[in-house]
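#help-structures

NK: newbie question. if I give both the sequence and a SMILES, will the prediction place the ligand too? trying with zinc ion
OV: yes, paste both and it writes out the complex. here, I ran yours:
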Amino acid sequence: MFSSVMSAAVLGMEAYPVQVEADISDGLPMFCMVGDLAPEVREAADRVRTALRNIRIPLPPRRVTVNLSPAHIRKIGTRFDLPIAASLLTAMGIIPPEHTGGILIAGEVGLNGKVRPVNGILQTVMLARDQGCTWCLVPEENAREGAAVPEVAVTGVGTLKELLEYLTYPEKGRKRAQSVPDWKEGEKIYPVDFREINGQEGAKRAAQIAAAGMHNLLMIGSPGAGKTMIARRMPTILPGLTMQESLEITRVYSACGLLEEEGLVKNRPFRAPHHTISANALAGGGRYIQPGEVSLATRGILFLDELPEFSRRALETLRQPMEEGVIQISRTDGKYVFPAHFQLVAAMNPCKCGYYPDRSRCRCLPGEIHRYLGRVSRPLLDRMDLCTEVSRVDYQNLVLERKNEDSRSMRTKVESAWKMQQARYQNCPWQFNSQLNAASVGEFCPLGNRESRVMEIAFEKLELSVRAYHRIIKTARTIADLEGEERIREEHLLEALGFRGADQKFWNPE
Ligand SMILES: [Zn+2]
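OV: that's the protein plus ligand as structure tokens.
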């Protein structure tokens, strides 16, 4: 007898429909699987046969053929165990064939019949919806994630026995569907807060401006000055996620198998890969291609500590996603596009020992300092809208009991700046000041006579590149937004110019 059950393959971040067909016919007893299968999919034969025997349903001693179609899509992972079992049970006449229509099934099965979680369930359920399915059976641990798609009923399956039960009595299975998670854009609770940082007013201000316009930020200063402390607190001043953003992030984490219990990602990501990371791990790659750190940081912060220590190749891979908000990876089996809409926050020491320009402590030779700073290429430096020097806090500031502004109050200002940008760019393909292209800077950031004059002088005196020139105006736009002002004024430009001071000081010394 022949049967067919719907499932899905996940490649990169996308799910593709796969039909799992089983046929049991007369002939020598054997189990044969076809359809462009990775080795672990082939091994499903042994897992499923043993698991079925362990729930006392041995396969008949006949010729069993399982086909995963279409053949041109590579099937990887262990997610086909459960649909193979369902298809076999149907072909054996145990499950009525009409009960498997309009259902999508995915999951791994252990030898004892327990169902184990798999990657990519969110996109699998989204595919089920697009294919007109009304019900999905997925591993119990993945049910909450799948339930984020309200159009499809998603039931978690704990064991092979449960699968059999739900497919025999579908009403019962549908009744057990996971409830759709309610989405609250409520308060996020972070273990850290800007309130805890004494002093560092310049760097805190830079962090707030960066957050307000999603600008890239470079902090430069000696070891122990507090660069990492500031970076770690940046997610605490970013506005909460919308449902749409959460789904985008969850898809990435689901594809990588990094989702935690609750299903949907609720906090903005903060990713801080070590400087030994390879270009592939940063951009995405691997034998079975998966998103990399730039995608895991999407809608959040990618923090690169010790920026000059990253390999040149790794840093170069950042340029395209920084411009486009997505990363494209070409492979022999096709082209993959992953989201990479991150805010880059980088930190570095000014020299190898970390104490330049403090000549009483720094023992580096001028050539060494030059080489060290030179590891951060000019094009990358030009993409950092704000560059701020973080110096060690003096003792007075450290011990003084102060009333520092807390993250919640900083976030409120950032939120109002985001709202101004939303209103301004509602008909545009971008959301933030930092994303304005050169052609639109003139339209959205007009300068008065006085302000134009300031920029003219700065352009000549600081020998700005065109890119840097535009970035200063965009940063000034954000500073004006933080103050709720429609017009960019001279003081906004001067503050924005001040955040190029550190890179002038270190990279273009007189
Ligand atoms: Zn030094």
